[in-house]
């Protein structure tokens, strides 16, 4: 029932992305959305701005015609090695985070102690994890946050195996810390993954990575059964190894904090190549992100 409003109302109410309309060459819809946004904010677009957009209409239409002759998306991926690398790496992040996120929630009822208390605690600890993501993404950067979240969560899984059955509160604490960190990673991945890909194909790449993760959400309920049939700590060992490996894979991706959102595959390929120490420090201090419409 919670999806009924989305099907009935959101499709008609939610506006299309300005950048997406520009990338598609839909100039008239872009300008109408821009005027509507200005009216809702109680302001207006100056004549100079409208004139500047009118002068670029020809260029936008030319780009639109050029897009029809572009090769398939799969060909573009293999043509640009940085995009191909991200195409292989980002699904691994989603597979690990989704499997751990749901696996730890389901496995909470099987650890020692009160299963109801354990389950409630494992769900409640997600809330500070979500807020950590919101507070830290624009401060330490997407890359550092995701990488650290994976590593801390992986270490917590190993620590849980070593303390389980002997120190209840200690084992529960590291269990919850790991769940909090993976919740933080899950929230950050939506932003981080989307910012690494060009506007024209951003939704496609994000959907592909998310789809790979959703497959693991089907496997997650089988983790307690796997532990019961083999070794009770085998799922947590799997979680720990996957988290540590995924944290290492984050090193292969560029930092997107403070970078201009790429509109083309070529621009996306250049992400991280022109970053300087001064720019990174300035971004961390002022926590500002610059977007440009080209």
Descriptive report:
There is one protein chain. The longest helix has 28 residues, at 168-195. Helix 7 (81-107) runs parallel beside helix 12. The two termini are 41 Å apart. The chain is elongated, with a radius of gyration of 22 Å. With 294 residues, the protein is an all-alpha fold. It is built from 16 helices and no strands.
List strands and helices in order, with pairings.
Layout lengths: L3 H10 L4 H6 L3 H14 L6 H9 L1 H11 L5 H7 L1 H27 L7 H10 L1 H15 L1 H22 L4 H28 L6 H18 L3 H7 L4 H17 L14 H5 L7 H10 L8
- Topology order in helix (H) and strand (E) letters: HHHHHHHHHHHHHHHH
Strand tally: 0
Instruction: Give the overall shape.
Output: elongated
How far is it from the N-terminal to the C-terminal residue, by CA? 41 Å
- Judged by helices, strands and strand pairing, the structural class is mainly alpha
What's the pLDDT, averaged over the residues?
83
Q: How would a crystallographer describe the biggest sheet?
A: none
Poorly predicted segments: 281-294
Computed CA radius of gyration, to the nearest angstrom? 22 Å
Number of contiguous helices: 16
Helix content: over 70%
Residue fraction in strands: under 5%
